[in-house]
Amino acid sequence: MIIKAYFSHPIRGEKGADATREDMDLNNEIAVVFSEMLKVACPALDLYVPAVHDEIIIELYASGHLPEGAILDGDKKILAKRDILIGFEYRDVISNGMRIEYDEAVHLAKPIFNFRTVRDIPGMVEQILDWYYNTHVN
Question: What's the fold here for domain 3-136?
């Protein structure tokens, strides 16, 4: 059993458009740590985590070679290939990019599961496994 999931998380975080490169790096590091904890809790998850690939994206965006719209279009294409969306709403932040990803998941009829803290992981994993069971049992 493999469940392909898109891991949506805030990159700019609470500061939004005022986030510095250091803020974005920190937010990405936190997202990676939480995604790794999630993989330990549910090894059946094949997670796509934007933070893992974000260093080149941030460099291209900062240099003006990659507009934000193109980044989000790419994210939507990756999401379309996934079974579910997992939203990591760290510190209760749902960024503009996350909202766009959530809207796209709804448009694509992808289930959305979200969490805010490490304490939320077991319950969310149970919800994901229940969804998997209910969609794969005749």
Answer: Rossmann fold (3.40.50)
Tokens of 102: 């959530």
Q: Of 118, 50, 129, 109, whose CA–CA distance to 89 is shortest?
A: 118
Could you state, in order of their start, the residue ranges of all structural domains in the chain? 3-136
Instruction: Quick: pLDDT tens for 62-113.
Output: 888 888 889 889 999 999 999 999 999 999 999 999 999 999 999 999 999 9
Residues 9-37: tens digit of each pLDDT: 999 999 988 999 899 999 999 999 999 99
